[in-house]
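INTERNAL AUDIT FORM
Audit reference: QA-55
Scope: verify that the stored structure record matches its stored sequence.
Auditor: D.O.
Record contents follow.
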Amino acid sequence: LSFAQQRLWVVDRMEPDSAAYNMPFALRLRGALDVAALRASLDALVRRHETLRTTFAEEGGVPVQVIHPSAPLELAQLDLRGLPGAERETEAGRLAAGEALLPFDLARGPLLRSTLLRLDDDDHVLCFTMHHVVTDGWSMDVLVREISALYAAFSSGEELRLAELPVQYADFAVWQREWLSGDVLDEQIGYWKEALAGAPPLLGISVDRPRSAAQGTRAGMHGFALPDSVAAGLRELSRREGATLFMTLLAAWQTLLGRYAGQEDVVVGTPIAGRTRVELEGLIGFFVNMLPLRGDLADDPTWTELLGRVRETALGAYAHQHLPFERLVDELAVERSLTHTAVFQALFALNRAGARDERLSLGTVRLEPFGDAPEETKFDLSLRMLDGADGLAGALLFRAALFEAETAARMAGHLQVLLESMAAHPGQRLSEVPLLRGAEREQVLHAWSGADTGYTGELCLHELVHAQVLRTPEAPALRFGGQSLTYAELYARACQVANLLRREGVGPEARVAICMDPTTEVIVSILGVMLAGGAYLPLDPELPAERRAYMIRDAAPMLLLTQASLADRLADCGVPLFQVDAEAERIALESDEAPATGVLSDNLAYVIYTSGSTGRPKGVLVEHRGPGNTVLELARVYDSRPGDRNLLFAPLHFDASVADIFVALTSGAELVVAPRRAMLPGEDLLRVLREQRITHMKTMQSALAATPVEALPELRTLICGGDKLPGEQLRRWSAEGRRFFNGYGPTEASIRNTSSAYAPEDGDPPIGRAVANTQMYVLDRWLEPVPVGVAGELYVGGGGVVRGYMGRAELTAERFLPDPHRGVAGARLYRTGDLGRRRADGEIEFLGRADHQVKVRGYRVELGEIEAVL
């Protein structure tokens, strides 16, 4: 076998009964058809080309070609004249499509099938199907051309002698094996190994549906045409830069793929005829080879600079086209996968116009293309361009198991944007070419941002609580075990703490650390610090002493509020301690009126430290205005109201606790505090939820999985934060009128920036759209919006963006950027470092960290691979 045949033979053994490598085409024959002449033409063709009577056997574990003696080719005939006229057309289309999908048996053959459908006396459909192992696109042209000549001779009774073939395909296979060896083979392999060293094994384009081993080869197609002016501009650019039109179009295609994948290194395959000797031009056989063309988009080149790179790559590949792609894959030791093709997953081909049916003249019989054979593809994405008298046209094929038709249509539109830019402004850098224009750009940047509710951000968090105190002073506000405080009692006790803190010097911008176990005292203390004008710094009592000491040194609080049970643990912290429980009598002597502080909404409300998972923990400086907007919006979205009981689930050193506390206390609900151990999934948490009759709960996937939902009839609203939750679990929790919300928000953008109400038909819950007065962008590395369905980095804008990091001016400048899309003076963006993508409805799906590679036991792997294994 030739190298190419051997590869397809192996694939057939791995995936038997597959039609992925069928090559079908059908012609409509209108006129008086001489069936006998057609039969004779087919038989002569089979006699002439050994490949058409070849099968593939295995001898001693090795595949071999078996060339059979010439015999008449079966021409199956089906007469559809008995059907009504309209039904004939439908049935012919169905039969042609079905024939194209019938698999071949490589060992038994034949590997060419022909069927003639008779719709009327002078109306036929001729269907051919061949297996790729004995043919290619060039061969199909040879077949049509020779049938045309043979039929013309047989139908007129003349003798036709086609020029004798100098070689047969089996001769080529032997020659290829002998020639491509030794130094010749080594030189070819050396070139390709160097050309592809370090190339990404997978094109990282986001797919609409997950990959699987059973995703099949069924394809969809989106066609488009380029305006004449664009086509003319591309031809002129090619001529001026000494490139071919193929190279120019390839440069644009690689750019689009790179933009969609977020990669600067893109490998695209292209078919090449593989007939490097004149003796092979008239043969039917499998000669076509695949060349991997590596695109270098680094350093933001101009179109002309990129075209120069593509030209050099293509010329080098053409000079080394002899190494069969199948052998290259073996030499590269690429890991095989049933979910994607090796080396490249995207294809590009440029063809010249010239239809087969125009070259086949059957006397007076008029020929037309018939139907559309079911599209099959072995690649994720394939761009086919046709250069003809009518201009440049394209067809984008996509694997239907991975992509929606709407995604392909958007992609084709964005390719046209790039081609228009290339033709009109070849000096533009890639970063200067936005993919999105007009209404599409307006939608992703503005229409899908949070609604402007007119929120001014003038009130501080404690002032929002005070407004609720005035509305419902006698309503229950806070509960811990058997203890309960009304709104009036809570506010009065917080004012007493505030007045004492004022006496200690606490005021605007002063930081006060709080290190307590959860009780009513911790909520009173938080509110008291704010009423004193200060900002609270929550410290986890269970933190290692070294980390707690680092946070205290970094934030430099003037005071640390704690409990007597924790005092010994904190004695050497270097900050004055104040034991709230031990000093209860002293606090009770203070005024229960709020002190005058002059604190404004742009003063600090709290400082919360990040986990430090990506480096040294950072103190995030959060002003009142950001979380003020968040808690009011979340209270509205979650429908938190008087009579509800909201659980404080998050530990205080997580900013989710800010939402738990202030959503409840600004909406008239009762905030329920429980011991820390009771928040662990299991019986203790279940007991709290039952006994306290919790209606609203912020939780996580592990807690949901361990909690029997049917035992909690009063639980009405559940909130998660970006977790990927099993659909069955979500459907169970969403039953009986319960509402489930997913969302997203980094500490640096004030708790929560998106929210999404789950519906069972959603599958995996998205993180939603931006909450009111917030902008949520999905941007590329140049801060340009990416299309729907394309992964990009998440950026948050609006009033929730915090001041920055404590004592980290350089890092603050790196992560907090001017907003280029709002046109508002001073507007800033926070760069989250997370990846996401928009769905067609505007909802955002969370995809993980932008730096998504981690080390596991010394191996560098992708998170997606870990998830697949788990």
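Auditor finding: record pair retrieved intact. Residues 355-359, 852-870 have pLDDT under 50 and may be disordered.
Action required: none
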